[in-house]
Amino acid sequence: MKKLFILLLLLGGASSALAVANTWNSTNTTTNWFDEFNWALGVPTAAASPGGDAILYQSSGVAPGPVLLSGESAVAYSVLLCGNPPPPTPQVAQTLTIKPGATLTTTTFLYVSGNGTTVRWGDLIMEGGIVTVGTDFSVGRSAIGKTGDQRGWLHMTDGTINVAATFSIAQYPNASGWVELYGGTINTQWFSMLTNDGTGVARLDIQNDGKLIILGDVTSSIANYSTTLGWITGYGDKNNVRWDTTTNPGKTTVWAVPEPATMCLLGLGALSLIRRKR
Which positions ≥6 away from 219 have C-beta within 8 Å? Predict the structure, then answer.
């Protein structure tokens, strides 16, 4: 019996050791995801911890976040993108940048801000490429019973984000999320805003060729988020948002059409550009 007790203690110690987080080393000055010295446990893998999770903390205002370049393919069991509590002051969001031609694949979730403690801000900058999320994708996420200020941003100008489960903006109390879908496509099985007793801010603004595609007919939810609540806008105005279930049969597609005044300004800008090229 005594030997069994000692064995259990040893196993418990081993489990604790394995629970060490694989954090981004924000004291480094490089943005290379594949530099093993930028990670506490080496470059993340698709397998469960140790080493699989990618925890991106920003502990100083000058520490860079990782940048995935064209041709680079990164994997992680899960990704948590959030800043440490202040300092710095003012608070700085931890960034992760995806360049055209790069890929990131997670076995489980991708959370942009949110682990339920104090102040955590994250910013995913999607300039192109493909991000594939194995389970849930949250922009602004907290946890039940937590009072910390959790903020997340998605700045997307191109590329594709594929979500196997739910894409949520501002999930749980004290979490806020802002999504600028200014290009590219987000494909998801389900979509939600300000859920689980959320008390923060949830905003989605769509411009240019940005599209949100959701499995099934969820037009009533989109109408509520946009027309009734004003959380989904197109070019900053809820009246510019469009959605249907015919563009992609079996799915709800959401996009934006600029108002006539905005279209005139865009046309004048294009005409001016043509004249300068001549």
Answer: 243, 244, 245, 252
Kindly list the domain boundaries of the chain, sorted by start residue: 2-215
The per-residue pLDDT for 276 is 54
Question: What is the per-residue pLDDT across 182-198, written as a single tens digit (0 to 9) for each?
Answer: 999 999 999 999 998 88
pLDDT digits over 1-54, tens only? Answer: 444 333 333 333 333 333 468 888 866 678 999 999 889 899 999 999 789 999
Dist. CA 188–CA 136, nearest whole Å: 9
Peptide bond into 90 cis (omega under 30): yes
Please answer whether residues 162 and 131 qualify as being in contact, where contact means their C-beta atoms are separated by less than 8 angstroms. Answer: yes
Would you state the pLDDT for residue 13? 33
- Amino acid 229 reads L
Whether residue 210 contacts residue 243, with contact meaning beta carbons closer than 8 Å, is answered with no
User: Which ranges constitute the DSSP H helices of the chain?
Assistant: 2-18, 219-223, 260-277
Q: DSSP letter string over 106-164?
A: ESS-EEES-SSSS-EEEEEEE-SSEEEESS-EEEEE--TT--S-EEEEEEESSSEEEEE
pLDDT tens digit string along 114-156? Answer: 665 567 789 999 999 999 999 999 999 987 666 677 899 999 9
Of 116, 119, 40, 112, residue with least CA distance to 84: 119
Is 46 exposed, middle or buried, given 0-12, 13-18 or 19+ CB atoms closer than 10 A?
middle
Can you tell me whether residue 198 is helix, strand or coil?
Answer: coil
Please give the DSSP secondary-structure letter assigned to residue 24.
B
Least confident of 53-62, 78-87, 185-194, 265-274: 265-274
